[in-house]
Write a structure and sequence with these properties.
One of its GO terms (biological process) is tricarboxylic acid cycle. One of its GO terms (cellular component) is cytosol. The chain contains 16 helices and 3 strands. The protein has a 3-stranded antiparallel β-sheet with strand order 1-2-3. The protein starts with 17 loop residues before the first strand and ends in a 25-residue tail after the last helix. The structure holds acetyl coenzyme *A.
């Protein structure tokens, strides 16, 4: 038995949800470029869960369910208010989603129908929880979800209590489409491993959130913004990046385990970042990002991943950086739950082996003699 570090190149499951072949990402066979251009996030969530694009009635019915399920239990809001005020948003989200399962009487029902229903509920309630966490951290009361609004519109509305602009809704909706699923990424794998023990969907999503939180995965978008803030002004950029490269530090938002010639999602976020900058008459963040890309790609050959330009996009939408990774979760919960449904439809416990590298032939010595 020989281990492969980081399971690189290991094919651990079959899946018909999303694929990456020769650098092209598809959801259920639809190219991500096409979906990013034309589809709403709700259509994409339906596609991931049910394997086909919804017709008009199916989409209407999904939108209604998402809207009906969006409010969260008041006891959960009370609980979030007890979390420390300086809470990490991802740690708070992980705790709140775990707690959410306690309020769902269906939590341990394992029929496909019950799990599909819980997938929709989780998709509906996760944005409400993120917005509540954001407001409670600032000492404000949560804003109740707006009936009939899309996930993107509702989330932006719940953050501020004000109607978001069409541009902001469109940009966030497209970002949600781009982040919705990504084959066997670390958080999706964590979700599948958890439910493959026949544990419940809330446990699966809680595991996934824990995995997404790390800066090598979803946490990278927050780390990109921290880096941009630390650099501060364009005149300091070249020296700051050069120092990181000389010190062999990782530049957040660059590199990918699977994409070696560029992440197909990054160009959409780059375009969005430029458009928002042009619209706001302030392209400083976009210009700095482009300069960083030039330096990192030029010197290391590493290309930006989905997290790199999403940092400047979200900042230009007026969103604080502690919410970037939770926004990733708002989108990816569609993919996590689709994978959970797929795992449970044809389940076998996931239990690989480890290559043992520790000592052997040890003789037990009683504690007095040690
Ligand atoms: N900055 C500088 N060097 C890098 C970077 C980076 N961002 N990414 C990889 N490298 C270097 C590594 O140091 C390594 O160099 P070495 O061979 O001289 O030691 C080489 O490129 C290969 O990198 P690995 O870390 O082995 O690549 P791996 O496939 O294990 O990791 C990962 C992929 C985690 C994405 C890595 O590129 C990274 O840490 N990037 C920064 C964090 C990030 O942006 N994560 C988000 C990924 S996308 C997502 O999860 C949504």
């Amino acid at each position: 038995m020989t281990a492969t570090k980081g399971l690189e190149g290991i094919v651990a499951t079959t899946s018909s949800i999303s694929s990456i072949v020769d650098g092209v990402l598809t959801y259920r066979g639809y190219n991500i470029d096409d979906l990013a251009e034309h589809a709403s996030f709700e259509e994409v969530a339906y596609l991931l869960w049910f394997g086909k694009l919804p017709n008009a009635d199916e989409l209407k019915s999904l939108r209604k369910s998402l809207s009906d399920y969006a409010p969260i239990p008041s006891d959960l809001v009370a609980q979030i208010k007890l979390y420390p005020k300086n809470m990490s948003t991802m740690a708070a989200l992980r705790s709140a989603i775990s707690a959410l399962g306690l309020y769902d009487e269906q939590a341990d029902e394992m029929t496909a129908e019950a799990n599909e229903n819980k997938a929709v509920k989780l998709q509906a309630q996760l944005p409400t929880i993120v917005a509540a966490i954001a407001r409670i951290r600032e000492g404000k009361e949560p804003v109740a979800p707006k009936e009939g609004a899309s996930i993107a519109e509702n989330f932006l509305y719940m953050l501020t209590g004000e109607e978001p602009s069409d541009t902001a809704v469109k940009a966030l909706d497209q970002a949600l489409v781009l982040h919705a699923d990504h084959e066997l990424n670390a958080s999706t794998f964590a979700a599948r491993v958890t439910v493959a023990t026949l544990s419940d969907i809330y446990s699966g999503v809680t595991s996934a959130i824990g995995a997404l939180k790390g800066p090598l995965h979803g946490g990278a978008n927050e780390a990109v913004m921290k880096m941009l803030n630390e650099i501060g002004t364009p005149d300091r950029l070249e020296a700051a990046i050069q120092e990181k490269l000389n010190n062999r530090e990782k530049i957040m938002g660059f590199g990918h385990r699977v994409y070696k010639n560029g992440d197909p999602r990054a160009k959409h976020l780059q375009k969005m970042s430029k458009e928002l900058g042009d619209m706001n008459n302030d392209t400083r963040l976009y210009d700095m990002s482009v300069k960083i890309e030039e330096l990192v790609t030029g010197q290391k050959g590493l290309k930006p991943n989905v997290d790199f330009y999403s940092a400047s996009v979200y900042t230009q939408l007026g969103i604080e950086h502690e919410l970037f990774t939770p926004i990733f979760a708002i989108s990816r919960v569609s993919g996590w739950t689709a994978h959970i449904l797929e795992q449970l439809a044809d389940n076998r416990i996931i239990r690989p082996r480890a290559e043992y590298t520790g000592p052997t032939e040890q003789k037990y010595i009683s504690v007095e003699l040690r």
